[in-house]
Amino acid sequence: MWPEDLPEGEVELYFDIEAAPDQNLIYLHGVLVVNHRTGETNFHALLAETHREERRAWNDFLDLVHAYPYAPVYHFCPYEAQTVRKLGQFYGTPHRHTEALLDRFFDVHKCITDGVTLPIESYALKHIARWMGFNWRDEGANGAQSICWYNAWSETGDRTYLDAILRYNEDDCRATYHIKDWLVRFAEPYWERLYQTTG
Questions:
Q1: Is the pTM of this model over 0.90?
Q2: How far is the C-alpha of 15 from the C-alpha of 174, rounded, in Å?
Q3: Helices and strands per DSSP (H, E), number in the chain
Q4: pLDDT tens for residues 29-41?
Q5: Can you list the pairs that 189-197 forms with residues at least 24 positions away whose Cβ atoms lie under 8 Å?
Q6: How far apart are CA 58 and CA 20, in angstroms?
Q7: Contact 47/18 with Cβ under 8 angstroms?
Q8: Phi first, then psi: what are they for 130, rounded to 5°?
């Protein structure tokens, strides 16, 4: 694990997708914008409330990430990068634009599995983040539950279900940030010694 695997920018983006596989729908692009200069964090929920809004949610996501052209985009596991490539192809986003965006993607899961060994039973997001002291606001929330919540929202129109999804997605983004920050703090002493040795 090298510093270029976990680049730190003045602004960093933490990205997590929610999908409804039974509807073939990507309905939420959650992005946590971390501004190290101001100390602010802002969560953006780019939401498709219906199937017809998937394209608009995708374009809203592109607008947001392009507003921070030098910000690294952190995610957990390959799914987000795979889905961005798929949506880019489906909605006719120029290939060079999609690939330029994906060049800014960094998989925190790969960094942690390549770089450290932890005393946990699984390297899933929740196991890692909870071991590092992060907790979700809704204790039972998970990916399968979010699918059920979205189906319930579609059937009932009760925004309580959407609010639960947004909380869960934001917490996933914040958990990814928490893990990345832990990794950097863990690795920095080794990086410093390495540079002293090679310098």
A1: yes
A2: 9
A3: 7, 5
A4: 999 999 999 999 9
A5: 191/2, 191/3
A6: 15
A7: no
A8: -65, -40
